[in-house]
Write a structure and sequence with these properties.
single chain; 182 residues; mainly alpha; Rna Polymerase Sigma Factor, Chain: A; Arc Repressor Mutant, subunit A; 2 domains; 8 helices
């Protein structure tokens, strides 16, 4: 049985280093992924993720549990990522997921190449989005967070999150239209 974040946080707040290590292990890959999606560079993303966990550790005593631990940690990672690239987080105001089947890919090299190209185009299209839209794509479509969780992370109303997701979906659909119709 997996120990809940709440219990691990309480133990870590009381000085149990093993509890904090478990939280780091649980969230390391996700935080690294978010940092990479924002920064676009593996080395800087790793540094931002480490900064985020350090800031989390240093601020853990002040975490009151009004939001989920993961939401609080994503906020920290977001800020550390923007700090790493020397920009402030965006302050301004769904993509149909492309599921590419892995079945039979080895048997169809042409299809494999085509799907690889589509993935590259999707990544390029997401990267080209304005920061305030790119980060909702990261949190909603890649991390699978709810509108409410994203609202807490970005410190924006749910309506703003919903409109950003909708705007990102429409922009990406337009950019990817030639690949979707094939």
């Amino acid at each position: 049985m997996e120990i809940s974040d709440d219990i691990l946080v309480r133990h870590a707040q009381r000085g149990a280093e093993h509890a904090f290590r478990q939280l780091v292990q649980r969230y390391n890959e996700r935080i690294l992924n978010v940092c990479f999606q924002i920064i676009g560079n593996h080395q800087d993303a790793e540094e931002a993720a480490m900064d985020a966990f350090l800031a989390c550790y240093q601020g853990l005593a002040s975490f009151e549990g009004r939001s989920r631990f993961s939401t609080w940690l994503y906020q920290i990672a977001r800020r550390c990522s923007y700090k790493k690239i020397h920009r402030r987080p965006p302050e301004s105001e769904p993509i149909d997921e492309l599921e590419i089947s892995e079945d039979g890919m080895a048997m169809q090299p042409d299809r494999n190449l085509q799907e690889h190209e589509i993935r590259e185009r999707v990544e390029e299209a997401v990267e080209a989005l304005p920061d305030h839209l790119k980060e909702v794509v990261i949190f909603y479509f890649l991390e699978g967070l709810s509108y409410h969780e994203i609202s807490e992370i970005l410190e924006r109303p749910i309506g703003t999150v919903a409109s950003r997701i909708n705007a990102a979906r429409h922009l990406l659909q337009r950019k990817l239209q030639p690949y979707i119709e094939e």
